[in-house]
Amino acid sequence: MDITEANEYDIDGLSYELDEIHEKAKDYDTLPLLSADDRLRHNANSRLQNPLAEFSDASLEKMALAFCQDYAISHKDDIRGFRLGAILAKDPTQYEKLRDRATKEEMDTLEREVTHRWSQPRLLYLVIILCSTCAAVQGMDESVVNGAQLFYAAQFGINNGDDRSSWLVGLVNSAPYLCCAFIGCWLTVPFNHTFGRRGTVFITCLISTLACFWQGFVNSWWHMFIARFALGLGIGPKSATVPVYAAECTPPAIRGALVMQWQMWTAFGIMIGYAADLAFYHVPDQHGIVGLNWRLMMASAGIPAVIVCCFVFMCPESPRWYMSKGRYAAAYQAMCRLRYNKIQAARDIFYMSQLLQAEAQVSFGRNKLLELVRVPRNRRAMIASEITMFMQQFCGINVIAYYSSSIFVESGFSEISALGASMAFGVLNFVFALPAVYTIDTFGRRNLLLTTFPLMAIFLLFTGFSFSIPLDTHRSVRIGCVAAGIYLFGMVYSPGEGPVPFTYSAEAYPLYVREYGMALATATTWFFNFVLSITWPSLLTAFKPQGAFGWYAAWNIVGFFLVLFFVAETKGRTLEELDVVFSVPTYKHAAYGGRQLMYWIRRYALLQKGAKPPKLFH
């Protein structure tokens, strides 16, 4: 079958249960569930997972020698490193097979890499610090506006409580995310192609610095809108580039943990943003300067970005970026700086080179954006990814992140107390993100979402209806209930819908369309971030806190059912297994979700201990 014909085939009409599949097929290459087109892609994805699996050690050494010859790597120590590294690239845990050929120091390093995965060179930790600081820049960019809007809205005459003022406050606050969704995120590919990973990080942090300082000098709401819109040019490409840069520089043993670090240190940056709001609250105006306190709040978000700009070029460029430009020798030298010995560096460079060759062979004659929609396996991954990204915003978290100070003032706090309460929320958001490094791989992505969505709905309803408590007679009770509801919501969000979307999107797509899938996922979350930010003030005015919080509580219930029916579990799956998981017809997975819900009702509501959980596959 020609591949252009195969693209037209779908598998939704097939009625195989995965239990039947495993009885009929002994390996994934013969799965009857997959169409001819899907099987071809499955085999390509398997090759992308480990392009060296089929080669013997002797063949790998010959390939390593050819690699050195092709790319003018001629020093005998480097050639030796590639011969041994190529063997190790097939399976880094099988370092014992090199014991007769490697030195004791090299063997100790290889063993320690497996047994003590966080034992890495200092320069690699500098890369980790760089990526964490970039995440903090992101978080601070998002949160400083929380306290500043208490002041600039009044100064610019957009706090009158009418519809126009509500929409303008929302428009100003949401400006960066509007830019991210329609411009910023889509600059990621050309920026990375032209300037590399380090260059993109430097340019985006420079933009963030200038835009943050610009916000401190504005004199009208539309001037603030323009400055904040420009901030989105820094936020968008940085949010897509930094996780990629970290993944390309770090060894596989800690790569997954570093994907999680982005969300965790973004939460840390949000906390620091709240702290800056509190620190500058009492700064008095100086001669000729009105609103110095909020101007310092907005400008302070540029400080972490300045720090990044100062030391980003102390880190090496991504070796994989060098290789994409054909600069293999430069890639090897960069990797040598990120590993303890040349065997490790040669291993990772050789493996990357084979992976790039495999990627180049995965070409199906179609536009990759179309592949996301036309190929059933990719389409189901895209639907699941888009659900998690959409719900990361519409669960209501950024209502708290951007407007908590205003919410706390509405509940009865003084302004300074509201800023302190917002900072406490930031601390909880950061602290409760830490367990996610463990829980996301222990409980699974889908299970975390199914557990936390109902709890988030309950706590948002509790927060909203706490505003019904009379302020004049029960002020302290109302304040306590509102704060408790918001804090409990943050504690549940942080290990669930906080870290899951980016992790899920990064692993659900096959490698050959992952860059496009992640660009779409990032644009989605920023677009709905914009929608949430611009509509909240008007929503609050129209429906009062009870209705506004109830709106997002209802979306958490919707999110629960969307995950139940359409989001497959990806925990602990290889690329081969994910091909099978996402090849299950959508209606089959939805039916499984329905059976799972009925099991929970029988087991935990009706206390039927004999109820058995349904199975989707073995």
Number of domains: 3
| CATH architecture verdict of the largest domain | Up-down Bundle
Poorly predicted regions are 1-32
Global geometry: globular
Here the CATH topology of the largest domain equals: Growth Hormone, Chain: A
Give me the secondary-structure category: mainly alpha
Question: How many H/I helices?
Answer: 28
Query: Oligomeric state of the chains?
Result: single chain
Element pattern in H and E: HHHHHHHHHHHHHHHHHHHHHHHHHHHH
Percentage of residues in DSSP E strands: under 5%
Helix content: over 70%
- Please write the CATH class name of the largest domain: Mainly Alpha
Cα radius of gyration in angstroms: 26 Å
Q: What is the rounded distance between the termini?
A: 31 Å
Total beta strands: 0
Protein name: H(+)-myo-inositol cotransporter
GO molecular function: transmembrane transporter activity
Main location: membrane
Membrane topology: Multi-pass membrane protein
